[in-house]
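Inverse folding, one chain.
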């Protein structure tokens, strides 16, 4: 491992000051160290913010609100009464009736539409970690979604439903998905992997597979587009405090773990 930065020596000195952790928790020690100062070799926090703002300026996505009846590929099912996609994938819009809710504002219950992910398991929210000069970095994306505040938000390396991974939309594949679907093929280690739930007020029983994987420092890893960027853990956590609503909830879930 190339350690011209002295990162490994500083890490060892820091770890020596910590109480001994259980074997299955030792990985948390380095994450504590990473969050103490910015050691990113690809630019400062200010430069990362500048990159994000440039991605917002260059975003070409727009949207307009249209009647549900005009959504291409979507229709009301005569059998279920739900709004469904012609592929049978993605999600459907169901109606639910809630009864006996004494802990809520409407104690007698209510009716509402709710989004139901096909199969309930949404997809993979995955973050890639890789060392450069011995220093851990994380691959983020400035991702445009029509419902995002400000259109573009900083999120995980991949943020894809299983329907997207199967290309049910008949569009392009998900960049870097192969590292999460077959990590051993690329010599990657899985640092963290867990099912995490979604907002139950809008989504019915939905959960996502949340993953943090580390690929070897020697592995060649070209970035396919300017919307991707390597940042430090310090920068990721600082972004949550630096500017309002630019970090997506999916990456916040991973940051809560590390």
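Residues assigned per position:
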């Amino acid at each position: 491992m190339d350690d011209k930065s002295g990162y490994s020596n500083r890490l060892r000195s820091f770890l020596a000051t910590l109480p001994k952790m259980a074997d299955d928790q030792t990985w948390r020690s380095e994450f504590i160290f990473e969050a103490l100062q910015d050691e990113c070799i690809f630019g400062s926090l200010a430069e990362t913010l500048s990159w994000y703002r440039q991605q917002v300026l260059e975003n070409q996505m727009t949207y307009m609100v249209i009647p549900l009846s005009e959504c291409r590929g979507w229709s009301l099912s005569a059998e279920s009464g739900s709004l469904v996609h012609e592929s049978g994938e993605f999600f459907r819009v169901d109606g639910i009736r809630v009864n006996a809710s004494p802990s809520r504002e409407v104690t007698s219950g209510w009716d509402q539409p709710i989004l139901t992910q096909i199969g309930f398991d949404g997809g993979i929210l995955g973050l890639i970690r890789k060392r450069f000069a011995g220093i851990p970095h994380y691959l983020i994306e400035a991702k445009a979604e029509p419902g995002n505040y400000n259109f573009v938000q900083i999120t995980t390396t991949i943020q894809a439903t299983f329907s997207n991974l199967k290309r049910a939309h008949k569009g392009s594949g998900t960049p870097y998905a192969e590292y999460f679907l077959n990590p051993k093929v690329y010599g990657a280690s899985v640092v963290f992997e867990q099912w995490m739930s979604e907002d139950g007020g809008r989504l019915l029983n939905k959960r996502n597979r949340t993953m943090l994987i580390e690929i070897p420092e020697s592995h060649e890893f070209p970035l396919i587009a300017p919307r991707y960027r390597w940042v430090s853990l310090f920068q990721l956590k600082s972004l949550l405090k630096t500017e309002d609503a630019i970090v997506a909830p999916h990456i916040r879930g991973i940051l809560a773990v590390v």
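The first strand starts at residue 74 and ends at 76. The longest helix spans residues 45-58.
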